[in-house]
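Handout, tutorial session.
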Amino acid sequence: MSIKALSRRIGYDFKDPELLRRALTHRSHGVPHNERLEFLGDSVLNCVIATLLFHLHTRVQEGDLSRMRAHLVKEQTLSEIALSLDLGDELHLGEGELKSGGFRRPSILADTLEAIIGAVYLDAGFSAAEQLIARFYAPLLKDLNPKTLGKDPKTLLQEYLQGNKLPLPHYTVVSISGEAHQQSFEIECAIPALNVHASGKGTSRRSAEQHAADNVLQMLTKG
């Protein structure tokens, strides 16, 4: 795909297209590569996301704001945005990275997105980078819930019960199957005071408990 077509997909027309080419170039491909742009983009991204959260969530305390920002700038989130833009198809990678599937590796995709942000910042300044980030993150910011973000089902269930002055749940092992190195657990989570219970399965006791807690939470909060 041409630089112009990719620019349209990103939503920004580069005055210096070479900056975009460099942002798409992994160090395995040669020099110049995108690591310095990634460094710059990471700083700009953190500043913009912090500012957006500060203005969107005026009553949220610093600890929760930090947790929300961490979620939005983590590798998984960045790589998902990069995938939505099909950046993997545009990467310039060395032969080894190409053979090992580097074009779909989350760390490389995340670094590339940060490098593009850095490139836009150099090309047109902070305001242009801020607008780009706001577009990338609009769907994520819309659905962000500071009360539940980053909390596992057991924690959320405990908070729900404590908030309603109800006793904590009981977790009971229903069954353990499989070989020692590949076991499967089934756990029941019960709230006797509400006559509510549900089971969950997982490859560890903890994951099965989380699954069971999530099922109970869904039962308590649906509708």
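The second record follows below. Compare its token runs with those of the first.
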Amino acid sequence: MTSIDLNADLGEGFGRWQLTDDERLLSVVTSANVACGFHAGDAATMRRVCEQAAARGVRIGAQVSYRDLAGFGRRAMDVPPAELTAEVAYQIGALEVFARAAGARVAYVKPHGALYNRVVHDEEQAGAVVDGVLLADAALPVLGLPGSRLLELADKAGLPTVTEAFADRAYTEQGTLVPRGRDGAVVTDPEAVVERSLGLARAGEVISHAGTRVEVRARSLCLHGDTPGAVELARRVRERLEASGVRVEAFA
């Protein structure tokens, strides 16, 4: 039986402001990418999400980002490698405190937003992220785009790697994500997202922005928690996957 992990970005708020419906999403996903305070999130939010995830048996992941609260981590930034390494390790360490307090551990690392896209091609920034993960915990798996420099360097460094796909993002013919500033970069039709999820999980492929089939072999499927109607959409995706014979479970 085919199996796939479902992950979502959670804890993306701070103070009295909350963007994602964390508790309801945690009833659907198998892995939670928890914001670590740099693009979103704060200490209280991180603690709450870790407690809720641990209670539901959902795997906790550190979603590390450039230091960019105002831009939600989606603005291009140039950060010196040594500084980025320290900031990645800092974010992982902060989340680990709350994960341990909840009786769990940080189980993987995933970059967010502009950093995620940058480390697909940028060897220097990808290397800095890998060094940050190694500094925090040399056994942590790293989630990233198939074929990215990040996963290549993580593998060379001896870190476990996990390939990831996006059901609600458009792909280029090269298998990378269409930049958010372009029309159609985010797939908003719920049925289209569900069908793309099936194609990614069962066939390892997706239709690109140009209409061609692109191979995307992934062990984890991301659904963005800040999408309108994210909870119901995630539930539809999971139900359709399981009805089609796909086992939804955290990656090994």
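Points raised in discussion: Residues 81-101 form the longest helix (21 residues).
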